[in-house]
């Protein structure tokens, strides 16, 4: 998934954390909600500005960060 269309960095929003373009919702928030057991449907219901694609973009972003971290450590 090409998360670039969904996620951006803005120093003036949420202290520059990666977030969903046009919202004040951080990628970290969505990942935490998923880790706590919330379903895609529950997240979208609570935050209607997000879609299932946004949530998949958060997962793809996290996987990419992990992959890059491992490459730097090697």
From TrEMBL:
InterPro entries: DUF433 (IPR007367), Homeodomain-like_sf (IPR009057), WH-like_DNA-bd_sf (IPR036388). SUPFAM superfamilies: Homeodomain-like. Gene3D superfamilies: Winged helix-like DNA-binding domain superfamily/Winged helix DNA-binding domain. This is DUF433 domain-containing protein. It comes from Hymenobacter gummosus.
